[in-house]
Structure formats: C-alpha cells, structure tokens
Amino acid sequence: MKKLNKTISTVALSALVVTSLFAGAQETKAYSGSYSFDINNVVQGKTKHNLSSKRTTTTVRAQTYNKNDKVQSEKSPFNVKIKRVEGLGFEYSVNSKADNKKHTHLLTNSPKKGKYNVIVKKTRDGWKNVPGYIKGSGSIDQ
User: Fold this and answer.
1) Residue 47: which domain range?
2) DSSP 8-state class, residue 16
3) Residues 36, 139: contact at Cβ < 8 Å?
4) Is residue 23 part of a domain?
5) Interatomic CA distance for residues 133 and 72, integer angstroms
6) Which of 3, 62, 74, 115 pairs with 95 at a CA distance of 20 to 30 A?
7) Is residue 25 part of a domain?
8) Residue 111 falls within a domain, yes or no?
9) What is the mean predicted confidence (pLDDT) over 82-111?
10) What is the pLDDT of residues 101-132, one digit of tens each?
C-alpha cells in the first residue's frame, strides 16, 4: 500500500510539472489590435487601442505607390506613433520603411495603461521627400 501511494504521488507530481511547462510555453497576448492606412502625408486613427503597462510591439507592412497606383521602386520611410488619448500625452514612436516587408518594432518603454490612437506619417529620406503614397496595415500586440 505504501509503494502504491508513493507511485501515485510521483505520477501526480510529474503531471503537475508537465502541465506547468505547457502553461508557461503558451504565451497569450493580453491585447492585439489592428490598424491600416493609405496616406500621402499623415493620418490619425479613430480606433482607441486599450493598452496595459506591458511589453508592446507594433508589426507593420506597407508599400510605396506612385500617382498611377503602380509599385514604386523608391521606398518611402514613415513613422508610426502610438499616442495616449486621455491623461498625460504619452507617445511611443517607431520608424519604418514602405518596402512591402513585415517590420516588427518593440516600443522602448511599456506604455502607461490607457487608450491610445495610432498616427502614421510619411517622412523624408534624409533631406529627400520620396514621391508617391503609402498603403499598409499593422498591429499592436502586448
């Protein structure tokens, strides 16, 4: 009987350890919200993303088009800003390039808990203003 209890305890402990390992391996996102844009200059989104004070990334993919809606060889840089709507105006900003590649950026600091809007702005490539417009989409993940 003692040997049976010891075996049952060992099996139960092993099951607990395995369950804990699987639970830790599956990281769930607290928040994932999307945004899209089609800009010549700048656009501010109306969606209020409800963020927590956690590690935050934004993943974005965009392409540069000319005035005839054809993919342009010269790729425009742009900026994605995540700006707090209420309270103190915390802002988090990342730079990217409209080259039809997926870019993931980690915000340098975790945002304060609150509601945020996304602002996407076409920027200059050094001193040069790249012609055309940018069309793309992205997500904010925590």
Assistant:
1) 32-141
2) H
3) no
4) no
5) 9
6) 115
7) no
8) yes
9) 90
10) 999 999 888 888 899 999 999 998 777 788 89
pLDDT recorded at residue 2: 54
**Token code pair at residue 87:** 């309270």
Any idea what the CATH number is for the domain that residue 121 is in? Answer: 2.60.120
Report the pLDDT value the prediction gives residue 1, as an integer from 0 to 100. 54
Distances from the Cα of 117 to the Cαs of 14, 45, 85, 122, in angstroms? 46, 6, 6, 17
pLDDT digits (tens, 9 = 90+) for 13-32: 344 333 333 444 445 668 99
Comparing C-alpha atoms, which of 132, 32, 39, 33 is closest to residue 79?
A: 39
Q: Is 49 helix (H, G, I), strand (E, B) or coil?
A: strand
Cα–Cα distances in Å, from 129 out to 36, 40, 42?
22, 11, 14
Could you give the 3-state DSSP secondary structure of residue 27?
coil
Q: Would strands 91-97 and 77-84 be described as parallel, antiparallel, or unpaired?
A: antiparallel
